[in-house]
Amino acid sequence: MAERRRASGGPDAYPELAMLEHFRQIGARLRVDRQARASLAQAPGNAGPLNSALLAHRALVLMHAQSPGYLRHFLDYLDALAWLEPPGDGQRPRPGKKS
Length: 99
Hints:
By secondary structure, the chain is mainly α. The chain has a domain at 18-43 and 51-78. 64% of the residues lie in helices and 0% in strands. It contains 4 helices and no strands. Helix 2 (18-41) crosses helix 4 and helix 3 packs across helix 4 (68-84). It is flat, with a radius of gyration of 21 Å. It starts with a helix and ends in a 15-residue tail after the last helix.
Protein backbone atom coordinates (compact mmCIF):
# COMPACT_ATOMS: atom_id res chain seq x y z
CA MET A 1 0.00 0.00 0.00
CA ALA A 2 2.83 2.37 0.85
CA GLU A 3 4.35 1.86 -2.61
CA ARG A 4 1.01 2.60 -4.27
CA ARG A 5 0.63 5.80 -2.24
CA ARG A 6 4.12 6.94 -3.21
CA ALA A 7 3.42 6.15 -6.86
CA SER A 8 0.11 8.02 -6.79
CA GLY A 9 1.56 11.04 -4.99
CA GLY A 10 0.04 10.24 -1.59
CA PRO A 11 1.18 11.73 1.71
CA ASP A 12 4.30 9.54 1.85
CA ALA A 13 5.56 11.00 -1.44
CA TYR A 14 6.20 14.42 0.10
CA PRO A 15 9.02 15.04 2.56
CA GLU A 16 8.17 16.24 6.07
CA LEU A 17 8.98 19.92 6.52
CA ALA A 18 11.03 20.80 9.60
CA MET A 19 9.13 24.06 10.12
CA LEU A 20 5.82 22.18 10.15
CA GLU A 21 6.71 20.49 13.44
CA HIS A 22 7.64 23.87 14.91
CA PHE A 23 4.21 25.27 14.03
CA ARG A 24 2.48 22.15 15.38
CA GLN A 25 4.22 22.67 18.72
CA ILE A 26 3.25 26.34 18.81
CA GLY A 27 -0.37 25.44 18.02
CA ALA A 28 -0.43 22.78 20.73
CA ARG A 29 1.05 25.20 23.27
CA LEU A 30 -1.54 27.85 22.40
CA ARG A 31 -4.36 25.30 22.69
CA VAL A 32 -3.18 24.20 26.13
CA ASP A 33 -2.92 27.79 27.30
CA ARG A 34 -6.42 28.55 25.98
CA GLN A 35 -7.85 25.49 27.73
CA ALA A 36 -6.06 26.36 30.97
CA ARG A 37 -7.46 29.91 30.86
CA ALA A 38 -10.94 28.52 30.22
CA SER A 39 -10.52 26.22 33.21
CA LEU A 40 -9.43 29.11 35.40
CA ALA A 41 -12.49 31.11 34.34
CA GLN A 42 -14.83 28.21 35.18
CA ALA A 43 -13.53 27.58 38.71
CA PRO A 44 -16.41 27.75 41.19
CA GLY A 45 -15.90 30.51 43.72
CA ASN A 46 -17.88 29.14 46.65
CA ALA A 47 -17.19 25.42 46.25
CA GLY A 48 -16.23 23.23 49.18
CA PRO A 49 -12.85 21.51 49.49
CA LEU A 50 -14.13 18.23 48.01
CA ASN A 51 -15.98 19.71 45.04
CA SER A 52 -14.96 17.67 41.99
CA ALA A 53 -14.85 20.69 39.65
CA LEU A 54 -12.58 22.55 42.06
CA LEU A 55 -10.31 19.53 42.52
CA ALA A 56 -10.01 19.04 38.75
CA HIS A 57 -9.24 22.74 38.38
CA ARG A 58 -6.51 22.58 41.02
CA ALA A 59 -5.00 19.50 39.39
CA LEU A 60 -4.82 21.24 36.00
CA VAL A 61 -3.29 24.38 37.50
CA LEU A 62 -0.65 22.37 39.37
CA MET A 63 0.09 20.25 36.31
CA HIS A 64 0.52 23.40 34.22
CA ALA A 65 2.87 24.89 36.83
CA GLN A 66 4.99 21.75 37.21
CA SER A 67 5.12 20.42 33.66
CA PRO A 68 3.36 22.23 30.81
CA GLY A 69 4.56 19.56 28.37
CA TYR A 70 2.92 16.80 30.37
CA LEU A 71 -0.28 18.85 30.58
CA ARG A 72 -0.26 19.15 26.78
CA HIS A 73 0.06 15.37 26.40
CA PHE A 74 -2.62 14.81 29.03
CA LEU A 75 -5.06 17.15 27.27
CA ASP A 76 -4.30 15.47 23.93
CA TYR A 77 -5.16 12.14 25.55
CA LEU A 78 -8.42 13.56 26.93
CA ASP A 79 -9.28 14.99 23.52
CA ALA A 80 -8.75 11.57 21.95
CA LEU A 81 -10.99 9.95 24.57
CA ALA A 82 -13.68 12.59 24.04
CA TRP A 83 -13.48 12.00 20.30
CA LEU A 84 -14.01 8.27 20.82
CA GLU A 85 -17.04 8.80 23.07
CA PRO A 86 -20.26 8.23 21.15
CA PRO A 87 -22.53 11.27 20.88
CA GLY A 88 -25.56 11.30 23.11
CA ASP A 89 -26.75 12.45 26.48
CA GLY A 90 -23.79 10.93 28.33
CA GLN A 91 -25.78 8.16 29.94
CA ARG A 92 -25.02 4.62 28.97
CA PRO A 93 -27.48 1.78 29.34
CA ARG A 94 -26.90 -0.26 32.46
CA PRO A 95 -26.52 -3.99 32.06
CA GLY A 96 -29.49 -5.96 33.28
CA LYS A 97 -29.26 -8.19 36.34
CA LYS A 98 -28.69 -11.83 35.59
CA SER A 99 -30.95 -14.26 37.39
